[in-house]
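Extended Data, record Alpha/beta-type small acid-soluble spore protein
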Amino acid sequence: MSGTSSNKASVPEARAALNKFKYEVANEIGVPLKEGYNG
């Protein structure tokens, strides 16, 4: 990792996988996420 802080995924392909994972986890625990802004 570089010394700079960033919220961008280091590997471009990982972004879609992480996004999918985020929605799967939210769904499992009952958090109603929607596309776009989720606070």
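Summary. Residues 9 and 15 are 6 Å apart (CA to CA).
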